[in-house]
Amino acid sequence: MKRHLLSAADLTLEDALLVLDTAEELAQVSERTVKKLPTLRGRTVVNLFFEDSTRTKTSFELAAKRLSADVINFAAKGSSVSKGETLKDTALTLEAMGTDAVVIRHSWSGAPVNLARIIRGSVVNAGDGTHEHPTQALLDAFTMRQRLGRLEGLKVTIVGDILHSRVARSNVLLLKTLGAEVTLVAPPTLLPTGVDAWPAEVSYDLDAVLPKSDVVMMLRVQRERMGAAYFPSVREYSRRYGLDVDRAAQLQDHTVVMHPGPMVRGMEIASEVADGLRSTIVDQVTNGVSVRMAVLYLLLGGSEPAIGSSSETRMGVAAQ
Amino acid sequence: MSWVLKNVLLYGDGDPVDVVLKDGIIAQIGTDLAGDEVLEAAGCVLLPGLVDLHTHLREPGREDAETVETGTLAAALGGFTAVHAMANTDPVADTAGVVEQVWRLGQEAGHCDVVPVGAVTVGLLGEQMAELGTMADSAARVRVFSDDGKCVSDASLMRRALEYVKAFDGVIAQHAQEPRLTDGAQMNEGVNSSLLGLTGWPAVAEEAIIARDCLLAGHVGGRLHICHVSTSGSVELIRWAKGKGWDVTAEVTPHHLLLTDDCAHSYDPTFKVNPPLRTQHDIDALRAGLADGTIDCVATDHAPHALEDKETEWGAASPGMTGLETALSVVALTMVETGGLTWRQVAERMSETPARIGRLEGHGRPLAVGEPANVVVVDPAARWIVDPAQSASRSRNTPFAGHDLPARVRATFLRGVATSLSGKPA
Question: What is the pLDDT of residues B183-228, one digit of tens each?
C-alpha cells in the first residue's frame, strides 16, 4: 500500500483485497466483549474534520480506538474556512505535535492531496468535496462480498446524484479494480460531463437496469440541489429515480440494496425497502468500522499481524 | 549616450547588421557601426519591443502581490516595452483619477510604458457604464476598456459600450465568461473535472459570449477584442466573425498554448487560472489560429498572486499565473520551434498588432532608421530553466517552474535606454 489513502485509484487489486481480508479478520474483534487490540498503541491518529459528519468521524474514531491508538478530534468547521491558510496552518500544527495519521474530511475536492504534501504522516481521505470517499467504497465492497460471496462480475447499479457524489466516484474506481461491473443511473443533469470516459455504463432508465442488478446502491440527493433546476421537483425525481416498493419487487431474489446514508426516506428510497431484508444499510455502518481499522492498521502498523500471534487469534475467537 | 547592437538579425531574417540606438530612436542600421556602449549580439534576433495587451500589475490595492515597479521590471526582463495594466485593482480603474495614477506610476518606474486599461462598468459590477470618455481624454489616454476578471454579461450594456467607444476609437476587451454557466467553476469541464470532482467551466460559457459579442460588434460597427481565447470553438467563431468583415480581434495566452487541464490532477493551485487550462485539442486549434492570424496576438494575462492566495485548497485559491518573463520563450517553444510562426510573425503577434489594437504610438513600429528605439534582442539558441525564485515579479505563481525553455531575452531597450541586459535589470 502507498503511504496515504487519498483516492480509491491508489489501491491496486492486491491492496484492495488485502484491506478487505484484513477487515474480515478485524471484524472478529468487534464481536468480542472487549473490543480492543494493542496493535496501534502509542500511535496518534487525528480526525481532522472541516465538515460535519458525525457518522464518519465516529466510525474512524472507533476504528482507531479499537486498535488502541490515541485519537484526537480536531474539528475545524468548513463554513468558517474560506482560505486555505487554515488547512496549511493546521497541518503544520499537527505535524509539530507529531501525529502518525490524519483522517481528513473537507468540503473542497483535493484538500487531502494538499495536506499530504505538507505532512510526513499518513493521510486518509474521509471524503473531500465532490471528489472521493475511498473508505466508503471499501466498506461497500466489503459488504457486497459479505452478502453475495464475491465481487468479480457483480452487476452493481448506483443511482442518484452522481455529479456531486464522492461515494460514486470512489465506488466506480474501486469496483473496476475489483472486477465488478458498474452501471450509473441518474437524470442526465446529475451525471458529470465526461462520465462517458469512466469505467462504468450509464443509463437514464432505472426500470431497465434494476432486474439485471446484483447490487443497487441508492444515493441521497442533497437538499441544496433541489432548488438548482437539476430536476423539476422532488416528486418527479422520486417517481423516476426512487426505489419504491413496486420497483424493489422487480429485483432478483438475491439482490441487495445499499445506501451510504444519510437517507431521505420517501425520496430516493422507500422506508419499506430501506428496512427490508435486502437492505444492507445497518451492515454498512458496522463494516465501516472494520474496514477503517484495516486501513489504519495497514497504513500505520503494516508489518505485524493484525490480531497478534495466530494462537492469540484462535483464543480471541474461542473466547466468544 | 548611444548603443550599438552588433550583428543582429532584423526579425531573424537576412544578413547580420549593426543597429545604433541614439536619442531615443534607431539612428543607424548598417555594418561596422559604432556606439558608446556595445552589445555583441551575433546570432540574436532583433524585434520591436513586445507589447502586452493584458497585464495585472495589482497596484493600487494588492502591492503585496505586485507593484507597478516590480511588474514592469518583470516586463522589461521579458522583452516588453509596453504593457496594458488591467482595471481590476482596488480601487478599480474606473475613473480618470485612478487611470492617471497608474499611468504616472509607470512613468516613474521607467522600466516600460504602462498603458492603463479602463473599466467598462463602475466597480466592475456590470451595471453602470464607467466614464469611458473621461478616461480616454485623461493624461492616461485610455483606448482599451475591460472588466477583465468579470464578463460584461448584460447584452444591452455590452452593446452600448461597443457603440459608445466609437467616439474615441476605443475597444472593448471582453472577458468572455457566461456567469450563469460558470457558477462556482474551478477548471475545464471535461473528463478531468469529472474525475477530480471540481466544478466544470464549460467551453460553451466562453463561446456563447464570443458569439453574442461578435454579433453585437457587427451590428453596431464597434471594435471588439476578445481576451484570453481558450477553446477551439472560440477560434472557429472568431474566424467566422472576421469572415464577415467585423472589427473583431483576439488574444491567446502563452499558458493556453502549452498546458492542458491534466495539470489539475496535482490539485496544485498554481495551475488554476481563468479561463481554465483546456485540452490538447484546444491547444492545437489555438496554435493554428495564432499561426493563420485568426487570433491576432499573444497576451500574457500576467496575474501575480501572494503566496497565501495560492498555498491553499484548489477551490479556495485565486485564479491566475504570472507570465511576463516567460511569454516570449513559451511562444518560441510552441510556435517558432514547431514552424507555426517565423520570428517576423512573432514581431507581428507580440508587438505590432497589440500596439495597433491598443492604438499606441511609438510601439510596434518598424525596425527602421528614425523609428523609436523600443526594441528587444533575443537569443533564439539560448535555453533556460524557469526558476520562480529568480523572477523579478513579486509573486512566484509561474506554471512553468522547472520547464526548460528556448529563447532568452538578451536586452530590452525603451526609447534607446536599456531596461534589461542579460537577464538582469539594466
Answer: 999 999 999 999 999 999 999 999 999 999 999 999 999 999 999 9
Domain ranges of chain A: 8-133+287-318, 134-282
List, in order, residues 6 or more apart from A311 with CB less than 8 Å away.
none
Q: Which residues of A touch B315 (CB under 8 A)?
A: 108-110, 129
**Could you tell me the CATH superfamily of domain B2-45+371-425?**
Urease, subunit C, domain 1 (2.30.40.10)
Q: Does A195 touch chain B (CB under 8 A)?
A: yes
Determine the average pLDDT of the residues in B59-68.
96
Q: Which of residues 39-98 of A touch B (CB under 8 A)?
A: 81-85, 87-88
Q: Are A181 and A154 in contact (CB under 8 A)?
A: yes
- A292 forms bridges with which residues in the sheet? none
pLDDT averaged over every residue in chain A: 90
pLDDT tens digit string along B379-396? Answer: 999 999 999 999 999 999
Pick the CATH number of B50-357 from 3.90.1150.10, 3.40.50.300, 3.40.50.20, 3.20.20.140: 3.20.20.140
Statement: residue A316 has pLDDT above 80: no
Interface test with B, best of A87, A104, A193 (most B CBs within 10 A): A193
Of these residues, B301, B309, B379, B387, which one is catalytic?
B301
Judge: B195–A198 Cβ closer than 8 Å, yes or no. yes
| CA–CA distance, B132 with B358 (Å, rounded to integer) | 15
Check whether A315 has a pLDDT greater than 70. Answer: no
Q: What pLDDT, in 10s, does the model give residues A116-142? A: 999 999 999 999 999 999 999 999 999
Please state the φ and ψ torsions of residue B165, each to the nearest 5 degrees: -75, -5
pLDDT (0 to 100) of residue A32: 87
Mutate which: B260, B313, B314, B318, vs A, most A CBs within 10 A: B313
**Inter-chain CB proximity A166 and B197 less than 8 Å:** yes
- Is the interface score ipTM higher than 0.90? yes
Instruction: Calculate mean pLDDT across residues B34-63.
Output: 97
- Check if B90 is active-site: no
Cell triple for A276: 427490508
Position B196 scores a pLDDT of: 98
Of B220, B223, B185, B224, nearest in space to B204 by CA: B185
- The CA-to-CA distance between both ends of chain A, in Å, stands at 32
CA A6, CA A104: separation in Å to the nearest integer? Answer: 10
Please tell me the pTM assigned to this model: 0.94
* Beta carbons of A103 and A60 less than 8 angstroms apart: yes
DSSP class of residue B319 equals P
Domain boundaries, chain B: 2-45+371-425, 50-357
- CA–CA separation, B86 vs B93, rounded Å? 8
CATH code of domain A8-133+287-318: 3.40.50.1370
Task: Please return the burial class of B243, using the count of CB atoms within 10 Å of its CB with bins 0-12, 13-18 and 19+.
Answer: exposed
Cα(B236)–Cα(B209) distance, rounded to whole angstroms?
13
- Residue A80, pLDDT > 50, answer no
A4 contact B CB<8A: no
Q: Give CA–CA dist B89/B61, Å, rounded.
A: 6
Please tell us whether the domain made up of A134-282 is placed in CATH 3.40.50.1370: yes
Question: C-alpha cell of B397?
Answer: 505563481
Q: How far, in Å, CA of B261 to CA of B188, rounded? A: 7
A48 DSSP β-pair partners: A74, A104
